[in-house]
Write a structure and sequence with these properties.
Blueprint lengths: L1 E4 L7 H15 L4 E4 L6 H8 L3 E4 L10 E4 L6 H9 L3 E4 L3 H15 L3 E5 L5 H9 L5 E3 L13 E6 L5 H17 L3 E4 L5 H14 L4 E5 L5 H12 L3 E5 L15 E6 L5 H13 L9
Parallel strand pairs: 1-12, 2-3, 2-4, 4-5, 6-7, 6-8, 8-9, 10-11, 10-12
Length: 289
């Protein structure tokens, strides 16, 4: 059984930089509280916990005057303002590509566009972008989410940074057709980040050349889920694993070539461990009578 890695996979610079910032503080003896996981990877969270980088769900869980880190996913501006007003020291590790989307949303609202965000309304990044729009942006996953919506004369579509590229393009085409037919100005700004585009393109190419794809990443990782979806859209069986125990030997029973990819928050050591476990399986193929 041969294991083939995707050409682009694993850590992106935004994740790496966020981890480096809080790790440096923790190793220097500073206790840091992150508002949610700094990145969506349980192994990283466990490593950081050992050097006093703690995950909390709310500012009320943070001791007075402590260091609070905004995660790579970003946050609404009022959260930082609230934290500073309460005397916390803020460390902002928001990915610069997410910051650009936040500012794009704000600029579009100021230009009097009705702003639509393609993404997951429950995702931390998306909630932050909505916050930067002053709560005026509308989150959609499909055209069906626009039922009953009355746009202004100017509409703009942007995206969560880790969205599925093909689905965003399809939605944009439908939206443009609908708005043009109604005489409404429409702008589409593809704010899906370059690392996401590269990883989705790479996993599609990989999926065409292997029997099964394994995507390694935290179960809460949106970008890892999109990698699984992209591989499946190519007609290849694909599975997401967070830890070694998530692997099932049955997935590889009839596989000669196994493709491996990883989400933007997955460290190399975890990828290596998963590959070693896959190689350890003794695959017995059925013998024809």
């Amino acid at each position: 059984m041969e294991i083939v890695r995707a050409q682009a996979m694993g850590f992106c610079f935004g994740v790496r930089d966020a981890i480096d910032v809080v790790r440096e503080l923790g190793e220097a003896g500073t206790t840091v509280y992150t508002l949610g996981a700094i990145v969506h990877n349980p192994q990283i969270a466990e490593q950081l916990e050992e050097i006093n980088v703690h995950v909390v769900g709310d500012l009320d869980d943070v001791p007075p005057g402590a260091v609070v880190a905004i995660t790579a996913h970003g946050a609404p501006p009022d959260l930082q303002e609230n934290a500073e007003a309460r005397g916390f020291k803020i460390i902002d590790t928001t990915c610069p590509l997410v910051t650009r989307i936040q500012k794009t949303a704000l600029d579009l609202v100021n230009q009097r566009y009705s702003v639509l965000i393609y993404g997951d309304s429950k995702h931390k990044e998306v909630r932050g972008i909505v916050g930067w729009s002053g709560g005026k942006a509308r989150v959609i996953a499909s055209m069906a989410d626009l039922e009953g919506w009355t746009p202004t004369r100017r509409v703009a579509l942007i995206s969560q940074s880790t969205s599925n590229v093909e689905k965003f393009i399809a939605l944009a085409r439908d939206l443009v057709g609908d708005m043009v037919a109604r005489g409404i100005e429409i702008r589409v700004i593809n704010t899906i980040c370059k690392p996401t585009k590269e990883r989705q393109r790479a996993v599609r190419e990989l999926a065409r050349d292997v029997d099964v794809v394994i995507a390694i990443g935290g179960l809460a990782s949106a970008n890892t889920r999109k990698l699984v979806l992209a591989a499946q859209e190519e007609g290849t069986a694909a599975y997401q694993v967070e830890r070694l125990d998530d692997l099932c030997p049955e997935w590889f029973q009839n596989a000669d070539r196994v493709g491996v990819t990883a989400g933007a928050s997955t460290p190399d050591v975890v990828i290596d461990q998963v590959e070693e476990r896959i190689q350890s399986y003794e695959v017995r193929k059925p013998v024809l009578a």
